Amino acid sequence: MQPIVGPPPQPYNAQYSAVPQKLEQPQQLETEKMVLHGQLESLKTKVKTLRMFSRAISTALNMVLFAFMAFVIATFYATRNDTALGRTIWPEVNPKVWPTIMLLASSLITFLMSLSVLCFYCFCFKRASESWKLVVATYVIHIGVWLVVTILYRQQKALNDIWGWSCTQIATKLQDEGHSRVNFQQLCKIQSVSWVLSIIETSLKIVFGIGYFFFYRKVREVSAKRTLANTMGEGAEGLLNAIF
């Protein structure tokens, strides 16, 4: 009887040559997870910087706006009974004050809100970073309100409101020839600058809102990739543990 000749035995190391290759998969996943984690933390830092910068600028602008409007309204009420050249120095029939009060109130409310949110971001950012929907709603409301305020304030500029009257030749004549104690040219400049600041406030909110939405999309994308990498990593690790 002839002996049965089989294939030559494989070297011992060759039988397990695939194990290191399979074990490389969890290492690659761990590296990918570390990279995604770094990207996510970098994006969160940029979001935090954008929010704080936005709120800081809004706080400063509204503080200046409030100071300007407070000065204007205080000047009006302190001198509304003054006369010069035989007439009152303000519009004689129903002087319109509500546009100035509207801008005064809007700047005060926005200043207090921005200051509060700025402090909240400084001390409780981890909690604040989770409120994506609240932040988006805040941006939308803020932009909408300031669009209305800015348009109304400019639309109501006429001969019988504080801003419109301060910029008229009649007011300048009362100041120069009637020696009025109100500097109408100064009031005109202050209110014109205030309107420009309100436009800047609205425009910056729109720009920051677009930037925030961009970073929000990026954070969601990286978070989804990291979640997928974690899931794949756990599955691959469990499979290798079961086999080997």
Automatic annotation (TrEMBL):
What keywords appear on the UniProt entry? Membrane, Transmembrane, Transmembrane helix
State which residue ranges cross the membrane.
Answer: 56-77, 97-122, 134-153, 193-216
Asked if the record carries the keyword DNA damage, the reply is no
- Stretches of the chain forming a coiled coil according to its record: none
What PANTHER family does the record point to?
HYPHAL ANASTAMOSIS-8 PROTEIN, MARVEL DOMAIN-CONTAINING PROTEIN
Q: What is this protein called?
A: MARVEL domain-containing protein
- Organism source for this protein? Lachnellula hyalina
Query: In the record, what lineage is assigned to the organism producing the protein?
Result: Eukaryota, Fungi, Dikarya, Ascomycota, Pezizomycotina
